[in-house]
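Contributing new records

If you add data, match the layout below exactly. Sequence lines come first and carry their own label; structure lines follow with theirs. Keep one chain per record. Anything else will be rejected by the validation script.
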Amino acid sequence: MPRRPAVPALFLVLCSSPLCLALAPAPNPKPAGAKPQAAVGAGAGAGAAVSGEALPNSDDLHQLFNDGKYKETLQKLARVLALKGDAAKAYDRHDLLVLKAESHLRQKEAPAAIAAYEQAAKEAPDDKAKAVDVATPLLIKKSKNLTFTPAAKKGAAAGEPIDITDPEKRKEAFASMFAEQKEQSAPKLKAAKDAKTLPPLADALKSAGTLRTLEVAATGDDAEVKSMVQDLSDKAQKMVTDALSKMTKAVDDIQTSANDLLPVRTVTRNPIGAGGGAMAESNYKKRGLLTPDVQELKRVIADCQKLAPALKDMSTSLGDGGDALAQTGKDAAALYDKARDVLNHDYANDYTKSPRTGRQARTPTPTR
């Protein structure tokens, strides 16, 4: 049987500091025979149960922060963030984690602030909040003693230092970082426009993801980055879609070929008539996989194993603009599963007496 040309493998090489928890003061000794105090609410943290103090609400915590009592804010936040179950539902966890990060910033505790913001990013209620949560640690790392100094532009002096502990001034720092990052990413984005393979495109789109985060943090919108990378996103989408289409056809063809029924004649004893004798019986078995089929399926599996997570990363970087890539990533994951099923199917023990389902072979013809 003529063999199908092998589909080439997809060219893809894709690319806390300790928390300050203060112990609550020990309760006064109870007189002998006193009844034990009831637990403070279902699911309450251990600190609340031990101290017997009422838990602060969100307004109380923000008031402590506004009053500049950052150490006390962190102490009470530790109790509230330890809550589980129904007791925790009374609080906005993202808000608490941001408050924790800001309290650490005011106390010049940069590593602890970074850790808290990274936690907050996982709880962010929307894209804008997440962008700020992700961009702030980047800004802290780029700053010296929590002061960010914009890089000097060609032929001009460096910008004025920015105190990043001030959230309002922080937006200015985000905008400056965005401008710097855009300039640094320009050669990579330009090269990706002429790319013939996926890796340079993937690298450029990941770089654009950082740009997008900074733009959203600075302006609340990603319009500029979206227009910058739209062509690259479309190009990557087409390249991956074409590759997946070829791989899907290859897997489908192999599956059809492996399930083709081949006639097999076996010699058995004739149970009819005296003296018995031998007879030939026709059966059918599935063709199964040939060596080139196995090799091709393994290539498809390996490519999809790299492709699916890479597409997920790219789509996440682009926000809403990466929806098409996200769906293609799901398609790659589905093809990975199908190729594995075709490769691992037991064709040797899957056969029938007729090439047509439910139809038995004709009555065996005795051999002479």
